[in-house]
Sequence to fold (101 residues):
Amino acid sequence: MTAEEKVVFETFKVRFRDFVNKYDSLVNEYEAFKKQSRLEIGEKNKEIFALSSRIAELEKKCEDLHVARSLAGIGEDPVVAKKRLTDIVREIDKCIALLGS
Fold:
């Protein structure tokens, strides 16, 4: 091997080693990013579940408030209030029927 070929070969070895080190560094960075992303996704899923539960709870309270206001006759058409009351009675009848089965 000539001196020039040795220099080229040594340069190649150095560059190849740098390439492998950079590749390993990028793989490690990618794995860390992937792990962090999974943690963040898990946290966001928990937050979504909590907020969905809160929305359902608030919708129930809102419906209860509408029922209470309609039963009290505050600001609603009597026909709507009667329909709500009929729906409540039907729901109670269904529950009683299920309990009696």
Summary: The helical segments are 3-72, 78-100. DSSP finds two helices and no strands in the chain.
